[in-house]
């Protein structure tokens, strides 16, 4: 097993002779970070996005229109906007969320306020729903929006139907730490106070979006994570035909670990986090595991992770990935540097 480390800042322009074909998987803020980093390295970039969100604006639109939730897809589109003035304007528009509404007098509305059903919705979610309605479906609508905003890549849903998530959770009740409960719903699993032991999708035999499978099979690299471990990262490995594609693809597979052990990974060491993925998705083997050096500062944690990666005949890549100004958040350019180094390994 080769162990690599990187602490330098990226020199990205012209760093890759041939742009690699990369598929990035996940959802939410984790996928946003990886896409923002990867778009500096290649234009042949596809996001394959989870569709199990049942909270907030996405959950409301999912229920009201019987559609896949658009929020994680919106964030992926926003991440693929470039850093030009136009790209930044589109990013801000997609991410704009309508404020709390307030009525004034006899139904009059203040200039900065909105009334009614728009409250809490993200503008990009409504744009996506409109595109789907007018252009024939999720794939066509997302492609059209991508062209409109000049996205540096493509966005695809993991499945073309909404999915449910349920998990077996231990110790959710502090008074009975050994009791196991079944928690249903992405939002509910993410907020569970217990220790997630296993996660499942509903339906368990859901079919992947065919174009997502095709992109995985044609890729040079498949990047999974970072993100909410059980509700954004693992779901891609629980859709049977998508998991089969991830296992069978000639592409090299990168698993990007989170930069802390909070949320769904509360109390788990990096090795335990990796073990959870391998246990929940038999057959999946990462070729490269990317981890922030703070997560393996403890020699025992580092040794345990090294041993587990070695069992998979993979490479461990240790890098400095944390933002100096926003602790707990990835520094996008440091993450880009790490991916640049990883892609050169291939």
TrEMBL record:
<dbReference type="GO" id="GO:0005737">
    <property type="term" value="C:cytoplasm"/>
</dbReference>
<dbReference type="InterPro" id="IPR038136">
    <property type="entry name" value="CofD-like_dom_sf"/>
</dbReference>
<dbReference type="GO" id="GO:0043743">
    <property type="term" value="F:LPPG:FO 2-phospho-L-lactate transferase activity"/>
</dbReference>
<dbReference type="GO" id="GO:0008360">
    <property type="term" value="P:regulation of cell shape"/>
</dbReference>
<dbReference type="InterPro" id="IPR010119">
    <property type="entry name" value="Gluconeogen_factor"/>
</dbReference>
<comment type="similarity">
    <text>Belongs to the gluconeogenesis factor family.</text>
</comment>
<keyword id="KW-0963">Cytoplasm</keyword>
<dbReference type="InterPro" id="IPR002882">
    <property type="entry name" value="CofD"/>
</dbReference>
<dbReference type="Pfam" id="PF01933">
    <property type="entry name" value="CofD"/>
</dbReference>
<comment type="function">
    <text>Required for morphogenesis under gluconeogenic growth conditions.</text>
</comment>
<protein>
    <recommendedName>
        <fullName>Putative gluconeogenesis factor</fullName>
    </recommendedName>
</protein>
